[in-house]
Amino acid sequence: MAGTLAACGSSGGGQGSGDSETVTLVSHDSWAASKGVIAAFEKQSGYKVNVLEDGDAGQAVNKAILTKDNPQGDVFFGVDNTLLSRALDNGLFQPYEAKGSDRIKAEYRADQGKHRVTPVDTGDICVNYDKKYFADHELEPPKSFDDLVKPQYKNLLVTENASASSPGLGFLLGTAAKYGDGGWEGYWKKLKANGVKVVDGWEQAYNEEFSGSAGGKKAKGDRPLVVSYASSPPVEVVYADPKPSTAPTGVAQGTCFRQVEYAGLLSNAKNSEGGKAFLDFLVSQRFQEDMPLNMFVYPVREGAQVPPEFVKFGPQAEDPETMDPAKIADNRDQWVKSWTSLVLK
């Protein structure tokens, strides 16, 4: 699903990432930024921005690794803590310490010895619920992982494929963090027996299968529980016309896993100077404060302000599951393999 984001301008010279006047960003489909903020970067830096969107984060990372010797662009944005070791182990990025990195909150920093990636945003992968469904059925929405396997929630949950989707993998890691090496598989057996539905990616899960989203309503989605983000409810408010006073969807706070997204200068980037300038831009105050109502994520920069409606409708999880990146690196591939055998077969 590669396509140029028209709001970001075009190369002018038509040379893609080989054009020294163009910096090409490769990202997942959820990339978004305000026209004015991109225009300000273009004016200040002298580079035109070209954006290639390449599907779900998991798909985009895999494709970037396969094309690393002749990359599609100069900067990759959207590799998160669930997939970071795969990108680093495969030599996807070259070192660069972005200007402003010293302002990034310490808990979000990674690869500090080599500076191959720059933290850009953070969010929480959590189960969202359709408030109307649960009100109509006089049923309390689930609050925790434990709740999801209870009989009253049978056939209600849709999640994404952990082998291909970033939120799907995050949800799997959340269960591994919660139940441990010896308990997560038993949990997923119960979840499967309770009718969990698995689809390829987030777009399909949230905008087609989930009954609580604007897209899901149009598509007549019939699953009132979906693996998405703690920041998904503000989307349903900000883009609604008229805007509701409360979000139509809620978050099961006991199902959250903390995600951090990174960007890096691609190895063999044709315009490495433009790529460096763009990485500096991603951690700038202006871009960090532009993100919440565009990509519906939280900034990682100290002092970056977050719009009040974003905080009101999409507060960060108070006690999300987390996992050390080294543990993810050591176990992820085997966990995904076991999960695939257990859930998809």
Structure write-up:
With 345 residues, the chain is of the alpha/beta class. 37% of the residues lie in helices and 17% in strands. The chain is built from 15 helices and 11 strands. It has helices at 35-45, 57-66, 84-89, 131-136, 145-148, 166-179, 184-193, 202-209, 214-218, 232-238, 272-282, 285-290, 292-295, 308-313, 325-344; strands spanning 22-27, 48-53, 75-80, 93-94, 118-130, 157-160, 197-199, 225-229, 249-251, 257-266, 298-299. Strands 1, 2, 3, 4, 5, 6, 7, 8, 9, 10 and 11 form an 11-stranded mixed beta sheet that branches. The longest helix has 20 residues, at 325-344. The two termini are 27 Å apart. Mean pLDDT is 91; it is low at 1-17.
How many DSSP helices? 15
Through-space gap between termini: 27 Å
So what's the overall shape? globular
The topology string of helices and strands comes to EHEHEHEEHHEHHEHHEHEEHHHEHH
What structural class do helix, strand and pairing data support? alpha/beta
Q: How would you name the oligomeric state of the polypeptide chains in this document?
A: single chain
Number of strands: 11
Helix content: 25-40%
The overall pLDDT, averaged over residues, is 91
Q: In this structure, how is the largest beta sheet organized?
A: 11 strands, mixed
% residues in beta strands: 15-25%
What low-confidence regions span 5 or more consecutive residues with pLDDT below 50?
A: 1-17
**Radius of gyration, taken over Cα atoms and rounded to an integer in Å:** 20 Å
Structural topology:
Blueprint: E1 22-27, H1 35-45, E2 48-53, H2 57-66, E3 75-80, H3 84-89, E4 93-94, E5 118-130, H4 131-136, H5 145-148, E6 157-160, H6 166-179, H7 184-193, E7 197-199, H8 202-209, H9 214-218, E8 225-229, H10 232-238, E9 249-251, E10 257-266, H11 272-282, H12 285-290, H13 292-295, E11 298-299, H14 308-313, H15 325-344
Parallel strand pairs: 1-2, 1-3, 6-7, 6-8
Antiparallel strand pairs: 3-10, 4-10, 5-8, 5-9, 5-10, 5-11
